[in-house]
Amino acid sequence: MEEKIVQRGLPGVFDYLEHTADLYIVAYGDNILDLYRNAGIALFESMTNTKDVDRVIEKRVVAEGFDLENLLYRWLEELLIIYYSENIMCSEIETSSLEIKRVNGELNYRLEGICRGEEFNPEKHEPRVEIKAVTYHLMRIVREDSEWRAYFVLDI
C-alpha cells in the first residue's frame, strides 16, 4: 500500500500521511531504537512545537509488549500518560535499550528510555492538536533496506 505524505514533519524523523479524521504518521529510524525515539518525538511534535520545550525535567520510560507493534503502542501510550498525568511535554527522547526475552514460553519485548521536557504552558507552548489515544489502526513496523519505518494512527 502506497501512503501519500500530506505534510512534512521533522526531516528524517517523521511525516504525516493522508487520513480522513485522525493523525496518520510514519516515523523513520536507522535502527530500531531510533525508530521508537522518533515515534515518540512525532507524538509530542503533533501536540506542540517541541523546539519551544525546555529540557528541565527527566522521566524514565519503560514499555513492554508481545511484538514490535504492541511495543510501539505501549511506548507511545506511556509517553502520552506522562503528558496527561503530569502535564509534561517532552522535547527530547533517548531510547537506551530493547531487550527480547522468552517469558513462560512467550516472547517479551522491553524498551527503556528517558524523555526530557517541561510542564506544558499554553502561553509558552503553541497548542496544536489534542491526542486522545494511540490506536492499532493501520499500525505496522517495516524494514526497507537500511531504514526502519513505523506507521501508526493517533486519535485526535
Binned strand content: over 45%
Largest sheet: 5 strands, antiparallel
**What's the total count of β strands?**
8
Strand pairing plus helix content: what structural class?
alpha+beta
CATH superfamily: Archease domain
**Average pLDDT across residues?**
95
Give the total of domains: 1
End-to-end Cα distance: 23 Å
How would you describe the shape? globular
Poorly predicted sequence stretches spanning 5 or more consecutive residues: none
Give the C-alpha Rg.
15 Å
Q: What sequence of helices (H) and strands (E) makes up the elements?
A: EEEHEHEEEE
**Helix percentage:** 10-25%
Q: In the CATH hierarchy, what is the class? A: Alpha Beta
Q: Just name the CATH architecture.
A: 3-Layer(bab) Sandwich
Number of DSSP helices?
Answer: 2
Main-sheet strand order equals 1-2-3-8-7
CATH topology-level fold name: Archease, Possible Chaperone, Chain: A, domain 1
Describe the protein's topology.
Elements: E1 5-8, E2 14-17, E3 23-29, H1 32-47, E4 57-65, H2 68-86, E5 88-103, E6 106-119, E7 133-144, E8 147-155
Antiparallel strand pairs: 1-2, 2-3, 3-8, 4-6, 5-6, 7-8
Helix pairs in contact: 1-2
Description of the molecule:
This protein is of the alpha+beta class and 156 residues long. It contains two helices and eight strands. A hairpin with a 5-residue loop joins β2 (14-17) and β3. It is globular, with a radius of gyration of 15 Å. The model has no long low-confidence stretch (mean pLDDT 95).
